[in-house]
Amino acid sequence: MTTLIKGARVLGGEPADLLLKDGRVAAVGGRLSVPGATVVDADGLVALPGLVDLHTHLREPGREDAETVETGSRAAALGGFTAVHAMANTDPVADTAGVVEQVWRLGQEAGLVDVVPVGAVTVGLRGERLAELGAMADSAARVRVFSDDGHCVADPALMRRALEYVKAFDGVVAQHAEEPRLTVGAQMNEGDRSARLGLTGWPAAAEEAVIARDVLLAQHVGARLHVCHVSTAGSVELLRWAKSRGVQVTAEVTPHHLLLTEACAESYDPVFKVNPPLRTDEDVHALRAGLADGTIDAVATDHAPHAVEDKESEWAQARPGMLGLEQALSVVLEALVEPGLLDWAGVADRMSVRPAAIGRLDGHGRPLAPGEPANLLLLDPAARATVDPAALASRSRNSPYAGRELPGRVVATFLRGEATVLDGKAVK
Amino acid sequence: MKRHLLEAADLDRDDATLVLDTAAQIDAALAGREVKKLPTLRGRTVVNLFYEDSTRTRISFELAAKRLSADVINFSAKGSSVSKGESLKDTALTLEAMGSDAIVVRHSASGAPHRLANWVQGSVVNAGDGTHEHPTQALLDAYTIRRRLGRLDGVRVVVVGDVLHSRVARSNVWLLTTLGAQVTLVAPPTLLPVGVGSWPVEVSYDLDAVLPKADAVMMLRVQAERMNASFFPSAREYSRRYGLDAVRMAALSDDAIVMHPGPMNRGMEIAADVADSVRSTIVEQVGNGVSVRMAVLYLLLGGNA
Predict the structure, then answer these.
(1) A22 CB contacts (<8 Å, ≥6 apart)?
(2) Tag placement on chain B: N or C end, fewer CB within 10 Å?
(3) Helices marked H in B150-303
(4) Pairing of strands B216-219, B257-259
C-alpha cells in the first residue's frame, strides 16, 4: 500500500509531501507525484510522529464493561497515538508472561496501535515480592516497563531490588509515587479546599517523599527510574535536582494535571476524582514549566475508563481516574502550545520521541524522514471542538473535559503506513 | 431561599436571618398551645434518608415535619435495599417516584447531598454529610445564641475540639461569621485541617487563653478512637488540655454560655457539672433544633405554596 500525503507541515515547518510505502516513509519533499498512490490532502495540517503513551489503562482482562483492548486502541488511534503502554492493574493482574502475552496478542488483533504491556513489579500488585519480571521481559510482549501503578511500591527495600533487577534487561520501574500511610482515605489535594469541602486530604508531601527516596535509590544502584503522573510543584523541583545530579530518572505528567485544578472538586462530581488528585494553579504552572524545560520528559494520559456506576455515586465511593487518550493532544495544545511554552518539535519530543525512548520502543518516536517507520499523525491545529463524552470511542464516558471546547483535531493517524484514522474517523 | 439547604456556606445573611426569624415566629405561634401542630405542609411528603445512625437528628427532623403536618417516611440505609448494593442515585429516584417533596439526607460521604440535588426534582436538606457540613445544627446553634444573648453580631464564639472531622464546626464557622459573630477555633494542631488559615476565624491551641473573652463556648464531641490514629496521646491528656471542667468554666465571664451539639462524652470534652450547669444550653439546643428545622422545611417547601 502506498500513500501520498500532500502538503503536510512536518513539525509545523514548510508544507511538504510525504510518501509512505511498505510501512516506511519512502520520501519527503516538495510536490512528489506517485501514480497509483492513495492521496491524502494535508493542506494546513501539521504532521507529527505517532504519539506514544506510557500510561494507559485498557481494563482487559477483567473490566471489559469499562474498556477493551480494542475500544481503547481505537480511542488511542483517534487521539493520534501509534503505541500505548497498557498498565498492569487488570484482573488477573499482568504479573506473568501469560497475561502480558494475552494483552499483547489482543493489541495485535485489534491492529490500531501497538499495545505494549506493562508488567507488574510485584505479584498481584501487593507490594510483597517481585513478580517474574524476567519472564515478562523475555515473552513475546517484550516488557520493558514495570509498574504497580494504582499502588506505590512502598517498601523501600523491595523498590531497591526492583530497580536493580530490571537492569539485566534494560527495564525501568515506573513508580506510582504515593506514600500509602499519608494517604489513607485521601480524596483530593490537601489544602484550603479540602479543609472546606470536608474531603480527606492527599498531601503533596506523600508524592514528593517517595520521589525523593526513589531518586536516591536509583542513584545508589545506578538504575533507571520513571515517575508516573507527577502532580506537584515540589515533585518538579525534586526531579530537577535529581537530573542535575545525573540520576537516571524520567517523569511523566498527565493532560489533566496540565489543565485542571482542585477547583473541579467543588462540584463533588467524581468525574474529577483522580489519583494523584488535581492540584492547585501553582502546581499546574510548575508542571507546564517542567514539561517545557524538559524536567518532565513526557505527557502520559493515565487514561482510566470507568463504568457509569463507578462514577455516578458519592465522591468517596467513586473510583479514581479519567479518560485521556482522545483529548491528550488537544490539552497539550491548549496548555502549552497556544501559550507559547512548547513548539511542534517540543510536542513531538514529549509525546513521541521521549516516551518511546523510555519504553525502549525502536519503531516509534522516530523522525519523519526517508527510511523511518511510517508512524505519524496529521493534526488540524486550527480546528476547535466541544468535547462530547457520548461521541468518544472509549467504552466509558468519564471525560473531565465534557462540554469544554479544546483546540486541535487529529485528522489522520498512520501505523506503519496503514491509516488507522482518516477524516477524523477510525478506519476500523 | 434556594431550593435546597446543602451547606451553611450557601446562606447569605438575609437567608440565615430569615430562618432564625421564622423559627422564632413558629416558637411564638406554638407557645402555650396544647396541640403543637401547624397545617402548613399538609399533603407534602418528607423523606428522612439516613445512611448513618443518628437517632437525635432523625427524630428532630421527623418531629419538625410532623408538627408541620407533613407525611414523614423514615428510610434507614440499614436493612433496606441499600445494604443490598443499591446506589444513592437509584434510591433517590425511587423515593422521588413515590412522591417525596423533600429528602432530608444524612450520609457518611461529604458532598452526598450535593450529588442527590443533581438527581431529584424536590428539595434536599443536608442533615450532615461526612466531615463537610451540618447546616441545621449551625442554624439551631445560632438560634440558641441569639435567644440567650440577644444578638449574634459581634458575639465571640469559641469552638473547641475535633475541628478536622467536624461538620458541625464547619457549618458554624460559615454561618456564625455570616451573621457577624467572631469565631475562634481551639484544638490541638492535629485536629485542625491543613488550610484552616484560609477560614475567616482565629485559631488557638490554648483553651485557657481564650476562655475569658468568650461569650459562647461550643464543645465538640471527640471520639476516643482518634487517639488510636495518634491525633492525641490519650483521652486523659486531651481532657486535661482541651476539656471544659468546672475550674475552666470559672474563667468565663458571667453571661457566657456553654454549648454542645451532642451526644456528649461526659468526662472527656465536657465535665458533668459543666454540662448540667446554668450556663449550659445543651438541652435547649435540642428543643431549638425542632423549631429551626420546622423553619427550614417551611421555607423550602411551604414558603411559596
Answers:
(1) A417
(2) C
(3) 167-178, 207-210, 235-242, 246-249, 272-275, 282-297
(4) parallel
Between chains, do A197 and B111 touch, taking CB under 8 Å as contact?
yes
B193 with A316: Cβ contact below 8 A:
no
Picking from A195, A267, A269, the nearest residue to B195 by CB comes out as A195
DSSP state of B42: T
Confidence check on the interface: ipTM exceeds 0.85, yes or no? yes
- The closest alpha carbon to A316, from A257, A264, A268, belongs to A268
pLDDT (tens digit per residue) in A145-184: 999 999 999 999 999 999 999 999 999 999 999 999 999 9
Grid coordinates belonging to A331: 490539552
Domains assigned to chain A: 2-46+372-426 (2.30.40.10), 50-358 (3.20.20.140)
Which residues are within 8 A (CB) of A400 and not within 5 positions of it... i.e. 6 or more apart? Answer: A256, A260, A264, A271, A272, A274, A322, A323
| Cα gap A50→A417, rounded to integer Å | 11
Q: Where are the beta strands (DSSP E) in A244-368?
A: 249-253, 298-299
* Amino acid (one-letter) located at A146: F
Domains of chain B by start residue, with CATH:
8-134+286-302 (3.40.50.1370), 135-285 (3.40.50.1370)
Q: Report DSSP state, residue B184.
A: E
CB pair distance less than 8 Å for A197 and B109 = no
DSSP run (H or E) holding B149? helix B135-149
A66-125 pLDDT, tens per residue? 999 999 999 999 999 999 999 999 999 999 999 999 999 999 999 999 999 999 999 999
Distance CA B271, CA B252 (A): 15
Tally Cβ neighbours within 10 Å of residue A266.
13
Residue stretches of the annotated binding site of A for substrate: 57-59, 89, 275, 306, 320-321
Note the Cα B247 to chain centre separation in Å.
28
CA B287 – CA B285 distance, rounded (Å)? 5
